[in-house]
From TrEMBL:
<dbReference type="GO" id="GO:0035091">
    <property type="term" value="F:phosphatidylinositol binding"/>
</dbReference>
<protein>
    <submittedName>
        <fullName>Uncharacterized protein</fullName>
    </submittedName>
</protein>
<dbReference type="GO" id="GO:0045494">
    <property type="term" value="P:photoreceptor cell maintenance"/>
</dbReference>
<dbReference type="GO" id="GO:0070300">
    <property type="term" value="F:phosphatidic acid binding"/>
</dbReference>
<dbReference type="GO" id="GO:0005525">
    <property type="term" value="F:GTP binding"/>
</dbReference>
<dbReference type="InterPro" id="IPR033469">
    <property type="entry name" value="CYTH-like_dom_sf"/>
</dbReference>
<dbReference type="InterPro" id="IPR053227">
    <property type="entry name" value="TRPL-trafficking_regulator"/>
</dbReference>
């Protein structure tokens, strides 16, 4: 996808047609994870140089602009991580960030060897100003939980659809000590339908529209539930249930650049337990939250 940032849309689609590749497959199926390292020109300007690459001629501003364009072509990838220059004293610190997000996505316990600052943050959203919304990719997502005979293991399948094309994953969460370790695997449609036969019928499927977008260097997911789960009715605002989420390495108490086109009412602090109803026991995402009105600062 990176080359599409450097050429016009028509030329890019023509190239894909000539090599018989679908853009949907390239974006969603080819890579299990995409990690983008932000240019030193954005946040580490003292270290930006052209000496190590004679084919590049961009000044700081041009480098920042091209970097932003390159990030945006990956909008919509299910596991997209942006590694910026925050708190990086040397390049090795940035590399450690990359290793950490790869470990997180693959379920490898890095223990104390790497930084663990990256955490999921959530906010409850009241309304959306679509007229001011930035560029985004939208997907229809369905989660279904499977029966598990291991009390400390949780398994779910997910379908993710856009314009009639879908990808499928299975996620398993196992408890190691006091923390859950997740592993995600892409599966075929045939495998997906086989897994559906093992669905835990005591838990309702979850249906939502997900918008993926970026604000500055921050990658966000906006989840709009098309069916509000029974046990989450108390959280809905104006008969809608909308969550904003992101992963960030910004320390607790630091400010996150939140979208000004969303009316955000509460910070959601992820607790340990779920909402409680067996019909809506969303193991992975929706847990018991302790709420605050300070929505622009992490607590």
């Amino acid at each position: 996808m990176d080359p599409s940032a450097y050429i016009d849309r028509e030329s890019w689609l023509r190239i894909l047609s000539e090599i018989n590749v679908e853009e949907f497959d390239l974006l969603n199926k080819r890579y299990d994870q995409v990690v983008h390292m932000v240019t030193a020109a954005d946040g580490a300007e003292l270290y930006y140089t052209l000496d190590n690459n004679t084919s590049r001629k961009e000044d700081l501003q041009a480098a920042r602009e091209m970097d932003q364009k390159t990030r945006k072509v990956w909008l919509g990838h299910p596991y997209f991580d942006i590694i910026d220059n925050t708190e990086c004293i040397k390049f090795e610190d940035k590399v450690l960030k990359v290793i950490q997000v790869v470990c997180d996505r693959t379920g490898i316990d890095s223990q104390d060897r790497l930084s663990k600052n990256s955490r999921k943050r959530k906010w409850l959203v009241r309304s959306i100003d679509d007229s001011r919304f930035v560029k985004y990719e939208q997907f229809n997502i369905k989660h279904e939980y499977l029966l598990s005979y291991e009390p400390e293991s949780q398994i779910r399948i997910r379908s993710r659809e856009q314009n009639g094309r879908s990808t499928y994953t299975v996620t398993k969460r196992d408890l190691h000590g006091e923390e859950y370790v997740e592993t995600r695997t892409q599966i075929t449609f045939r495998e997906y339908t086989c897994y559906q036969k093992m669905r835990d019928k005591s838990r309702a499927p979850l249906h939502k529209q997900r918008r993926c977008f970026m604000i500055e260097n921050q990658y966000f997911n906006l989840d709009i539930y098309t069916v509000v789960p029974p046990s989450a009715i108390s959280l809905q605002l104006d008969n809608r249930l909308i969550f904003l989420e992101t992963y960030t390495t910004i320390p607790v108490g630091g400010r996150v650049p939140l979208p000004d086109f969303l009316e955000i009412t509460k910070v959601l602090y992820v607790g340990i337990l779920c909402f409680g109803s067996p019909l809506f026991l969303e193991y992975y995402e929706l847990r018991v939250f302790h709420c605050s009105n300070k929505y622009d600062t992490l607590q």
